[in-house]
């Protein structure tokens, strides 16, 4: 396509990456299909060892966007902070690799930043294999169901004015995960003007295996437990240990009360799976059941482990 056909917006797009070679083409292809492109793209690379940077540079060699690569080992939060500080424009759009952009994404982020200090975009789940499809069936939500007061935007679809970002001191670099949730909560408490833009969509691909989903939920929940946030995870923790405990008790005691307790927990589990899937007009299957169990198991053990670490190993103070 001729470069003259691209329409550029005065906004900086920032992202972090580490060994994203398998996702580069999909990310870049969807970016070029947008109705407008960022004038500047800044990628903070944590010393990738694959062809990520080579592919990015080759892709943008004849494109009108100015691509800047910031190299050096860093966490996601440190990389984003460095990229935003380097940005040339007041309006900054934030996203990740492992997603694809809706064609209107950047224009929607830009339009919202004309009137607001920061904007939360939205995302829809997408799939490439049966496990990812099961994840989508369980957790996809309609845009109309989002509660603006409770929704916590992710940095896979996010926009902020640079001066506001710097005033808020950016992402907390002490956070291993959940750094975007922490920033959003601080922004909401600060009173900075905010817009939830349901049309600023990206399409996000979940982890590809049961084990990867378990580990991801374990890490997220462990960090929540360690810093003392998202206490709704206590519900998952209580349910999982009730379920496992009732099963063990029944196998050991072999009595009616233990059996009834186990059946109640089992029915509650299947009811939750069923209603999640029915909400999306899908059918329940074995993969969905196993995936939801892996999801709950990771969340329960992770949250409990984080609480234990905070209380008995070493405390954690958010700076």
Description:
Residues 315-319 have low confidence and may be disordered. This protein has an 8-stranded mixed β-sheet, sandwiched between helices. It has 2 domains: 3-204, Alpha-Beta Complex (Spore Coat Polysaccharide Biosynthesis Protein SpsA, Chain A); 210-313, no CATH class. With 319 residues, it is of the alpha/beta class. α8 runs parallel beside α11, α9 runs antiparallel to α10 (256-279) and α9 crosses α11 (286-313). It starts with 7 loop residues before the first strand and ends in a 6-residue tail after the last helix. The protein has 11 helices and 8 strands. The longest helix is centred in the last third of the chain and has 28 residues, at 286-313. α2 links the parallel β2 (37-45) and β3 (66-71). It has helices at 21-32, 52-60, 76-86, 105-115, 130-139, 162-167, 179-190, 210-227, 233-253, 256-279, 286-313, and strands spanning 8-17, 37-45, 66-71, 91-94, 99-101, 118-125, 158-161, 194-204.
């Amino acid at each position: 396509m001729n470069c003259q056909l691209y329409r550029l917006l005065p906004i900086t797009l920032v992202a972090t990456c580490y060994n994203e070679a398998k996702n580069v083409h999909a990310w870049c292809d969807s970016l070029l299909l947008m109705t407008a492109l960022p004038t500047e793209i800044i990628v903070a690379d944590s010393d990738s060892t694959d062809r990520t940077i080579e592919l990015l540079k080759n892709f943008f060699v004849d494109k009108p966007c100015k691509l800047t690569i910031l190299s050096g080992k860093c966490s996601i939060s440190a990389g984003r902070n460095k990229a935003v500080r380097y940005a040339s424009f007041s309006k900054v759009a934030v996203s990740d690799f492992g997603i694809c952009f809706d064609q209107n994404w950047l224009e929607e982020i830009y339009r919202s930043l004309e009137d607001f200090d920061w904007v939360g975009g939205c995302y829809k789940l997408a799939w490439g294999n049966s496990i990812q499809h099961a994840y989508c069936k369980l957790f996809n939500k309609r845009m109309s169901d989002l509660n603006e007061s409770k929704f916590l935007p992710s940095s896979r679809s996010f926009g902020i004015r640079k001066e506001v970002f710097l005033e808020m001191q950016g992402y907390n670099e002490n956070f291993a995960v959940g750094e975007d949730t922490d920033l959003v909560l601080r922004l909401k408490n600060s009173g900075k003007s905010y817009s939830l833009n349901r049309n600023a969509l990206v399409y996000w691909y979940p982890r590809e295996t049961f084990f990867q989903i378990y580990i991801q939920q374990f890490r997220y929940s462990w960090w929540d437990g360690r810093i003392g946030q998202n206490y709704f995870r206590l519900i998952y923790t209580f349910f999982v240990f009730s379920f496992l405990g009732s099963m063990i008790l029944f196998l050991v005691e072999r009595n009616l009360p233990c059996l009834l307790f186990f059946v109640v927990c089992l029915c509650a589990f299947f009811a939750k799976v069923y209603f999640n899937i029915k909400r999306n007009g899908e059918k329940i299957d074995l993969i969905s059941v196993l995936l939801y169990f892996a999801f709950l198991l990771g969340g329960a053990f992770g949250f409990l482990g984080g609480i234990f670490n905070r209380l008995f190993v070493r405390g954690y103070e958010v700076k």
